[in-house]
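fold-stage: in
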Amino acid sequence: MSSVTEELPAAKPRQKMSDEAFITALVAAVAVGLFLVASLLVPNFFQWQNVVNLVTNNWAVISLGIGVSFLLVSGNFDLSVGGIVALSGVLSVWFAQSTGGANPLSTGLGFSYPMAVTCALVGAFAIGALNALFVVRFGIPSIIVTLGTMMVARGIAQVITHGSQRNTNLPDEFGFLGNLTMFGSSVKFPVVLMALLLLIAIFVERKMVFGRITYWVGANPEAATLSGIDRGWHVVKLYLVSAAIAGVVGILLASEYKSGFSNRGLLMEFDALVIALLGGVAIAGGFGSVIGMFFGAIILAVVTSAATGLVLSPDWQFILKAVAVFLAIVTQTWALARRNR
């Protein structure tokens, strides 16, 4: 009588978490840890409404962080987004103000609100196209180009507002979108739009060829070019998308406050860069994720909110931001190096 020995299937080796997923998980853990520490130090910090406020109060920076993160992954900077926020908001007000006002700041071009918004977005696209032109066509470093276009955009906004703001002689519908609440709650439309943009960005990053190409362009530009990828055209599209997001943010902020202010969005470009770096996006390109950027925004929001709750001066808040960014980059670099030994 012969016995038949059945071989058991070999167990599949456990797949190692990718470096990107590891950093994202690390950033999420740091965000939760900081929130718990802040809850111990700041009275009434540990509340659900405070968690909601950390997201809703930072919808503009998180939205800008999407475009900035994609460009960083591709190996490029975009420091122009804050200037575009100011310019698009001011343009939307100027175009929507009726003609024949009592003074120059109350006199506009008298466009309908939809037309005013469309023209303001064209202005945002123009700055994005300038970025792409100088970076792609002339090969000027993106950090220099976008710093320059940021100042140009804000300078145009200051000229239109005469260094002040435009907030009169506007149509009634101007403040509708910025103050529209959704689903019978206090959550405003800009917050819902931010969430939709975040979900779309995650899908593009993980499931679409466009997202994969962004990583290839940032990780190995020469290999991407040899593979037939039009690297320049891809970077052009990234700059246009980032400018479009910044334009929408500026228009919604102008609608929310019913004014066009040339200093609106001041330093937002640096906050968007900070949350991307906090979230693990590599400054050299080829690495990072939008989810990580979101948790980076939570880290920055917790630090800022806790500093305010502890009644620290704005100067100390800047120092805390700088320390948080430095520690985050050092920790991420150390954790990756130790993990990949």
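fold-stage: in (second)
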Amino acid sequence: MALPGLAPPKPIPLKERSSIVFVEKGQIDVLDGAFVVVDVNGIRTHLPVGGFACIMLEPGTRISHAAVALAARAGTLLVWVGEAGVRLYASGQPGGARSDKLLWQARLALDEGARLKIVRKMYALRFGEPAPERRSVDQLRGIEGARVRAMYELLARRYGVCWNRRAYERGDWDAADVPNRCLSSATACLHGLAEAAVLAAGYAPAIGFLHTGRPLSFVYDIADIFKFETVVPVAFRIAAEAQKGRLELPLESAVRRACRDMFRKTNLLERLIPTIEEVLLAGELPPPEPPPEAQPPAFVEEPSGDGGHRG
């Protein structure tokens, strides 16, 4: 809260924030001007809401209107997720998406030539080499799937993890084996961060290019570019430690903390939005100029080194 006579504090650019934090079994509220989690015993835990890109709300969490409003003003994405973050039920959208960017994104997705160029760019960024020539989007999807399965097997051998295949049941979390539970928790962390970046940059999570037909198709597109350099090795490393009985934390908690450290180590927040722009520009359709009456970003910081910091 700003003091009388002082300008309100400016939101922290997305790239300078911590990545994500999970909250479960508590009441989130604004008390004495602070964003806090209150447990069943009435103990308050302060969360610096403006210092996070994304707050994941797990089962057992309740949040007040005042807390949602404060998170929106701070430009922090709230995501309501299932146990261990495996299912996403709803999310906020602080600042909103820009219509000119949405129209450009939709135009790129509807133009088959532009879409193929974007998919090829994502393939090159993900695997460090050009995509095979004269392949359709469906063919590239199949090639990518085969490479991903091979990379899972390679990492499993590297870390000494017993691995069968990527499989989990959304309705029965405990039915999955340890490596799959680790992978699900790790990718949930990455998806939350990627969604925050997509929304911050002003685009629609649902309008994807390689992935289609899902509410988070574009989030999956962007997250997959970074998956194997960040969270997948982390998941296999934690799975290996769990199989050897070396974990001091619950499995999902250990994965989340390791992912948090990996995001910081790789400067992922700083890289996400420029990568989104790079991918879309590969479609070679010029981005439209915003109309004079376009709504400016909800939060403006001058100078800003982050062209898409939330909102």
